[in-house]
């Protein structure tokens, strides 16, 4: 700057004016150098790095490029240049240096933020990220980095050691715990969720207390984001996954089968022993012919061996329409293409209720898709509702308005006949 001032004095310019002009010219020169250096960094160096990144086989560096980590690094160049020229202005050197250092720290925080985001993105490219997400830990690191960065900026501007501020954190611990209560609870919950493999991204969970019923699409430090089946989003606090109960359907999803557990309610007054006519009819049913032959032979041998008097059907053993129907359902499900034959399959009677005798079908579909599961279940029960009457059985249902109207019409008809 002295050199510029001497040049101006050679043109017989007033020394005071020459001093101001030299300062302005120096500022312009430094600005031009900063602009040119920044331009070279952005347009030349970053383009070379981009070309190298796009033409190699690695993926992690491409993620760094997408997160603009290299672009943020280019902001260091002007700050370093300004810091280097601070001695040019002795009266303002301290202020310029502090401002440049503060800017460098802030840019460093932005670089760290983008770098941590890139690390999370790189980690998500691996399958283990679905089991052990690290987004919560990344957010904790961000909080620590930002806190330290703010302390460094303030310490730099006021000219104090950062240790002065760090020593005061102990006194502020109660305030910090209050301010970051959710974050601390979320951090502890995140560690427990990850270590115990309680939830993963993609799991279907059900948590009625929070209205959550759908797939997990994100696990962060404070919240677990659930996309419900109606496409709404429910945010569940991370610590709630530890303190409250929820259902995780992952076991069903990985098993390859979805449970069918539904009952037919049989009117108990329609249950009876099989007649000869019914037995002949059942022998013509494909899913029952082998069963009927085996059971008839077994019953006949038992009754003969024990000299049972079969003149009364109560004596000895005999076939019942409910037993044959249960065997038919079992064979029908075993031959159904939508049922997983490797998993539990049974047809059982439950305790009778005021609605009749529950005949429960317990099986698993071989497809966990919702639409396919409902279709398989409906197909089975459509058939069973229609075929029950072929076994002389009536399905129970509470009287409807039509039933009551039919009874009234029937009673009225009998009254009219009696009067006639």
Reconstruct the topology from this structure:
Layout: H1 2-10, H2 15-54, H3 60-66, H4 69-73, H5 76-84, H6 93-124, H7 135-158, H8 162-167, H9 173-179, H10 181-195, E1 204-207, E2 212-219, E3 223-228, E4 233-237, H11 240-243, E5 247-248, H12 250-255, E6 258-266, H13 276-283, H14 289-305, H15 321-334, E7 346-349, E8 357-365, H16 370-387, H17 401-419
Antiparallel strand pairs: 1-2, 1-5, 2-3, 3-4, 6-8, 7-8
Helix pairs in contact: 1-2, 2-5, 3-6, 5-6, 6-7
Describe, in plain words, how this protein is organized in 3D.
The chain has 420 residues and is an alpha+beta fold. The chain has three domains: 2-179, no CATH class; 195-252, SH3 type barrels, CATH 2.30.30; 258-272 and 320-402, Alpha-Beta Plaits, CATH 3.30.70.100. The chain is 57% helix and 11% strand. The chain is built from 17 helices and eight strands. The protein has helices at residues 2-10, 15-54, 60-66, 69-73, 76-84, 93-124, 135-158, 162-167, 173-179, 181-195, 240-243, 250-255, 276-283, 289-305, 321-334, 370-387, 401-419; strands at 204-207, 212-219, 223-228, 233-237, 247-248, 258-266, 346-349, 357-365. The strands form two sheets. It has a five-stranded antiparallel sheet. Strand 7 (346-349) and strand 8 (357-365) form a beta hairpin. Helix 3 crosses helix 6, helix 5 runs antiparallel to helix 6 (93-124) and helix 6 (93-124) packs antiparallel against helix 7 (135-158). 14% of the residues are buried.
């Amino acid at each position: 700057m002295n050199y510029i001032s001497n040049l101006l004095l050679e043109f017989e310019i007033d020394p005071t004016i020459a001093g101001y002009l030299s300062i302005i010219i120096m500022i312009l020169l430094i600005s031009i150098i900063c602009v040119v250096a920044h331009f070279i960094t952005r347009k030349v160096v970053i383009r070379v790095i981009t070309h190298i990144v796009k033409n190699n086989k690695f993926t992690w560096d491409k993620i760094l490029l997408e997160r603009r980590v290299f672009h943020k690094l280019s902001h260091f160049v002007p700050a370093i240049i300004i810091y280097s020229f601070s001695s040019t202005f002795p009266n303002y050197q301290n202020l310029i240096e502090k401002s440049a250092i503060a800017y460098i720290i802030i840019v460093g925080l932005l670089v760290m933020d983008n770098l941590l985001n890139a690390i999370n993105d790189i980690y998500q490219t691996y399958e283990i990220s679905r089991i052990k997400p690290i987004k919560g830990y990344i957010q904790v690191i961000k909080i620590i980095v930002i806190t330290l960065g703010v302390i460094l900026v303030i310490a730099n501007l006021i000219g104090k050691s950062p240790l002065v501020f760090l020593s005061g954190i102990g006194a502020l611990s109660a305030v910090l715990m209050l301010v970051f209560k959710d974050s601390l609870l979320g951090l502890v919950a995140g560690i427990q969720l990850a270590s115990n493999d309680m939830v993963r991204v993609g799991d279907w969970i059900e948590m009625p207390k929070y209205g959550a019923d759908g797939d997990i699409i994100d696990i962060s430090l404070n919240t677990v984001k659930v996309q419900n089946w109606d496409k709404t989003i429910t945010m569940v606090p991370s610590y709630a996954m530890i303190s409250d109960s929820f259902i995780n359907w992952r076991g069903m999803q990985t098993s390859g089968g979805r449970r069918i557990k539904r009952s037919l309610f049989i009117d108990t007054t329609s249950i009876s022993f099989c007649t000869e006519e019914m037995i002949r009819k059942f022998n013509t049913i494909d899913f029952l012919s082998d069963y009927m032959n085996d059971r008839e032979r077994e019953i006949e041998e038992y009754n003969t061996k024990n000299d049972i008097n079969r003149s009364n059907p109560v004596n000895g053993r005999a076939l019942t329409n409910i037993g044959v129907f249960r065997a038919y359902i079992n064979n029908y499900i075993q031959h159904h293409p939508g049922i997983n034959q490797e998993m539990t399959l049974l047809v059982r009677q439950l305790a009778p209720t005021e609605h009749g005798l529950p005949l429960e079908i317990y099986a698993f579909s071989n497809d966990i898709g919702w639409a396919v599961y409902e279709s398989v279940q409906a197909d089975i029960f459509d058939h069973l509702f229609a075929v029950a009457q072929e076994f002389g059985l009536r399905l129970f249902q509470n009287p409807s308005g039509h039933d009551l109207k039919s009874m009234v019409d029937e009673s009225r008809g009998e009254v009219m006949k009696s009067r006639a």
